[in-house]
Amino acid sequence: MLGCLALIALCFQQAPGKIVPDSKLELTAAPGNFLSRALHLWDPHTAFGQVQSDAYGYLLPMGPFHWLLDALSVPDWIAQRLWWSLVLCVAFLGVWKLCNVLQYGVPWTRLAVALFYALIPRTFGELPIEVWPMAMAPWVLLPLVSPRARSGWWRVSWSALAFALIGGANPVAAAATLIVPAIWLLSRAKVKLALGWLGFVVAASLWWLIPLLLVIRYGDAPPGPRWQPAIGVAIGLPLALAAAHYLRRLASLAASRSIHRRVVPVLVTCLAVAAAVPVVAARPDGAFTTIPAHWHGAAAWLDEQAAPGSVLVLSNTTEPLAALVKRPMAALTDDVRRRIDSGVGDQTLRQELTRDGVRYVVVRNDQTDGVPALAVHDSLADAGIKRVAYFGPAGQTRLPYPTVEIYDVGPTTPGRLLPRSRLVAVGGTVDDVPTVVTALGGGGGAVLSADADGKLDGLPFIETDAGGQAVDRQPSAVVLRNRQIGRSACLHVGVRALCSKGQAQAADESNGLSRNVQLPSAASYEVQGTALAKEGDALERLLFMPGAITATASSRAVTAPEGRPGAAVDRDTGTGWIADPDDPAPSLTVKLPAARDVQGLRFRSDTYLDGSRPAEVMLHFDGSVPIRAAVDADGNVRFAKRHARTIEIDFTATKPLQDARRSPVGVTEVEVLGADDLRKAVDPNRRITPYCGNGPTLRIDGVQLQTQVVATMQDLLQRRPVSFSLCGQLTSVPLRSGRHDVEVLANRGLVPIETTLAKAGFGDVSVTPVQGVDVWRPNPAELTVEVPDADQQSVLAVAQNYNEGWEAYDSSGHKLTPIRIGGWQQGWVVPAGPEQVVTAAFMPDRAYRAGLLLGLVALLAVLATAVFFRRTPKRSAGRSIRR
């Protein structure tokens, strides 16, 4: 009793009042919802829908334990500590009782070893769910070695029940608990009993064994087994028993050597205390008092919205929102992640999210994952995705963004009917599909060529630079792209640019695209693509304003045009110059078109400019003797009127930022008093000079071709994607059969990020639109769709992950052919015909639920055997299995 009380006290001493992140937050936050979803193999709530991972393994005993405490309104942190206490006490009592039964050691060694056994896993930071198999291991062996007169039925049934209570959350560790009992039985030549015991173990575990087999069959590849808990289970119990035995012998040996008999117990007690210290002193990362109210508010707001569509959380984790919200959750794909992280957004991002059935995007600003929050907000703003709700205080971001923000992507539907004429087959990967669909206009759909074979033969074939160069199929189009377009050091909030060298990320191909294209036969291809502004002199020459003040500097912090020296004289308070942090003597030189009488300077600094404010300057007028001047509180520098054309400003002293940080000097605007009319703004709506050759350079097999781009100054300054196309005498490029070297290179301050070679006239045939359809789910494993009439063969696509376990039937009862859409979405081929109702079901779910029911019956049968077959037959009375 004292040992259990000590362990309970230790559990409540660790981060009292706080919830420690565990492997299943939902088990603590909403156990009822968790258990109800665990009753189905298919989970439509998580990551676009998926096969349950290991939720079935929590149905006993962890799930009911947490559900009962939740029903009794026990605070979450107390419920968690009670579970920890149960785990440690079960481990402690199991080893202590086993040592007593086997008569290993003496009372004090049994107590010490039992405490060690319970504490050591927690000392090394193991989660309670991973320690649970180790805690139950003694109880699996205990009935088999009991000295009481019990029947073999009683022994194997109680051992099997103990094994059943381990659950299937960690099958490898659970299986490891069988090693010691199996060795025990076989070493005593109890073969029949061992076989009976194994049968009972299997029967008692059917409730999680059958679901496990179905998950392996229909789910994604399961994660690698957690070997550390399994190894601990396999060797922990034998080591504990051996320690109990040899500690007694060690004490006897010490006494025989005239060492005080209490020395060994005292040393062992000290070791036990040392094992408890890490448990008491540990301060787990991420512990929280309760799930913050703003997450409950965000979940409630999302569930109140009637519009269909899933929720996408722009984070590495969906917790704790996934544990609170009822609306289905989306998965953050690699392509969307790259687009969001780049800080570059346009309507193509919105189109991709709409095709994926995403209605709301949740941005969390309470944690950092290596991506600047500004990049996320910049991408969403450029895509036209507006914020509609926010919750919580300001997060850990450069700007005071609320902790949780919800953005509305716009109307979407959970299903689409894609006419065959709007589908293409893509030779590439799932990440290539969004780029291909966007490059072809964004209004259709795509199937990976491997998924289309034998199901939708004859679709137009689109080759990509990841497609492996299929030489037996003539591509209707070839799409080339830069997979990582990088990120600028200057990100935008409205018209304001916030620059920092730490925000920049290099592109994979900063100078353009260079690929090999293989064609089985000759054809002519039109060329078009997308480009971004390329930082450097060529881009900044496009921003030059004739007759205006110009500026140069000794250094600059960023290469983005918003941070160029000329940004200090462009009448734009959204841009500004910052010196390089390593510049020991930063200076800024302003040059007038012609000499003027000047009589002062005024420095303007935007609140969010990440640079120190000038405090003292040294001024050089046309190379004359410098003068030193102080900068007053309003940023003014006064001096006697001078006639000059060039003013070199050396910054000799600075003021720290508002938060007292020291950073390089920075200036938003420099006003030259007496010549301020020469400070001219760049017209954001001014188009760059339109002429053939102002776009990226196209070179095919060494032959250079020109392209033309239409873009505004704002497109260049804010790094928005702009389109280019082939120009000149050729409207298309004739290509012979064979291998071709295709290069699309940076030119005139623009770098290509995507290029499409499409056969002349391709994509101009179909006028049949893609139709959105509603999806009804009577339960997690079934869905019903009203399919509108179609004048051609079509594909019904549902915004959930593809799984071969789904079967669909049309109104006449015919089974529809399943097909994977876009590399991941569930789809079925629907023949042309009138409006009809399509029903679909995840067929393995029936076996899953039957397995749960069968497992329950088998478990009750094992329990009945344990209760009613207690006594041993008279002829074997007094016989113990320990002989």
Number of domains: 5
Number of helices: 24
**What's the shape?**
globular
Report the radius of gyration as a whole number of Å.
Answer: 35 Å
Helix content: 25-40%
Question: What percentage of the residues does DSSP assign to strands (E)?
Answer: 25-35%
The major β-sheet equals: 9 strands, mixed
Low-confidence stretches: 876-880
Intertermini distance: 31 Å
Mean pLDDT score: 88
Number of strands: 38
Structural class: alpha+beta
Structure description:
The chain has 883 residues and is of the alpha+beta class. The chain folds into five domains: 2-36 and 56-281, no CATH class; 293-408; 469-487 and 507-537 and 688-759, Jelly Rolls (Sandwich), CATH 2.60.120; 546-678, Sandwich (Jelly Rolls); 771-844, Sandwich (Immunoglobulin-like), CATH 2.60.40. The chain contains 24 helices and 38 strands. The strands form nine sheets. Strands 8, 9, 10, 11, 15, 26, 27, 28 and 30 form a nine-stranded mixed beta sheet that branches. Strands 16, 18, 19, 20, 21 and 23 form a six-stranded antiparallel beta sheet that branches. A five-stranded antiparallel beta sheet has the order 31-7-34-37-36, with no helix packed on it. Helix 8 crosses helix 24. The radius of gyration is 35 Å and the shape is globular. It starts with a helix and ends in a 15-residue tail after the last helix. Residues 876-880 have low confidence and may be disordered.
